[in-house]
Write a structure and sequence with these properties.
elongated, 0% strand, mainly alpha, 5 helices
């Protein structure tokens, strides 16, 4: 998860919002890394609840990743 977060920082370093919006490649990479963060975060809650509660931001991380994934599929469905 940490590696994925560092990759997101690396992918977007020096980019402003317009540059990010204009790069499908960077968006795809960031998207994938958020998937990588979200799935183990969700599994952690199920497999080791005591460890999961030690990550104060875990509920926000999961909510963000869920919103990101679900809004992506909703947006893609509208474009087909």
């Amino acid at each position: 998860m940490r590696g994925a977060a560092l990759a997101i920082q690396s992918f977007t370093a020096g980019m402003d919002t317009d540059a990010y919006a204009g790069s499908d490649l960077v968006q795809a990479g960031v998207w994938r890394k958020f998937e990588i963060i979200g799935e183990p975060s969700n599994q952690l809650r199920k497999l080791d609840a005591l460890l999961a509660v030690r990550i104060a931001e875990l509920p926000q991380i999961l909510a963000f990743c869920d919103q990101l994934i679900h809004s992506y599929f909703a947006a893609k469905a509208r474009t087909f």
